[in-house]
Amino acid sequence: MVIAILSFVSVANASKSSTGTGSFTATSTVVNMRSAGPNTVFDSNVSFTATGLFDGTCVGPSHSVSVSNGKSTTHGSCTFTGSIGENSGTVIFRIQVMGEGASFQGRFVAGQGTEGLAGVHITGTFQGMGTGPTTSAGTYSANVQFKPA
């Protein structure tokens, strides 16, 4: 009987995990730009709109360095407001991007969720292309794990 109860407690406390894909569009507004030798350093405010596994918007700052050979590195964070499956709330994304020319790829992690996204931990990758001077679009894949509260 004790084994059956412990098994039930373990199942009840197990985390729920899922994987999925989707697409996004992004718009950025440069708020500060400067030259550092042959490189350009700029800070932006970025807004992403995601569909698929994630359905919502993510808004926050980013910091980028573009080197003279056309490659760039960007780090940023944003607050996602929306839903993941049937769970809604907010969650903080941390993003790393590597680009060359108009194409880019990167990875992200997310956590610190609220409301229905409390206890969520997300990891994923993405890739895309610039679609204009301040816009881009792409696709992502992610692993989402909900831990019990």
How would you describe what is shown here?
An eight-stranded antiparallel β-barrel has the order 1-2-3-4-5-6-7-8. It has 149 residues and is mainly β. It is 7% helix and 72% strand. The two termini are 26 Å apart. It has a single domain, classed as Beta Barrel (AOC barrel-like).
In short:
The protein has one helix at residues 2-12, and strands at 16-36, 39-52, 54-66, 71-84, 87-100, 103-111, 120-130, 135-146. With 149 residues, the chain is mainly β.
What topology emerges from the helices and strands here?
Blueprint: H1 2-12, E1 16-36, E2 39-52, E3 54-66, E4 71-84, E5 87-100, E6 103-111, E7 120-130, E8 135-146
Antiparallel strand pairs: 1-2, 1-8, 2-3, 3-4, 4-5, 5-6, 6-7, 7-8
* Average pLDDT taken over every residue: 90
What is the number of E strands?
Answer: 8
**Number of separate structural domains:** 1
Annotated CATH topology: AOC barrel-like
Percent helix, as a range, is under 10%
Key features of this structure:
149 residues; mainly beta; eight-stranded antiparallel barrel
